[in-house]
Design a protein that fits this description.
The chain is mainly alpha-helical and 194 residues long. It has five helices and three strands. The chain has one domain. α4 runs antiparallel to α5.
Length: 194
Amino acid sequence: MNNRLTRNLASASLGLSALCGLVFSGKAFSRLIDTGDICVETDFWRNPALVGELPVNPGVEGSGSAVRLCQEAPAVAQRVADLGSTLPWLLFGAIALLFFSRLLKVVVTEGPFTTKAAGGLTALGWLVTVGTPLTGLVAGWSHSWLVHSMAPIVDSGPEFSGPLVLTLAGLAGVVMGKVTQEGVRMREDLEGTI
């Protein structure tokens, strides 16, 4: 299946993977060396009737209905939580696009109905199935902890963020990879008997 569309899609997904990786690295580096305030938004006080000031720690400012909290001179743990709440989806995207690019490269060189292509589809499916909730948990829990570190009244605990429906797409990839693998095995058995 060496056609122009598949080759271009493989190249584009590899390029996007590299771009996501570079953006991830650049954002991580710039946030680690940044000495300024860190900010996070929370909807804990969505449409409240607040009287007086928000119950936040000293040095933290809050404003708006969906409150934006900004910490002056944040602690190292707050910086790490800020990274954990913003960067995991970029890393997940870079890795998923890399797996997709490798799958398409196998399809171009060996064809779509081979053991290697079926294994690549299964691996991509498992990556998306396991990686989506794991990435959502890391990002959500980091965000939750960061908000709690600035406003102790807000509970910190396991939270998910992002599109968890991608897990279904990952499961579909796993199933299709296994079906294709079984089809390849049956074709090889049939060719061996003729």
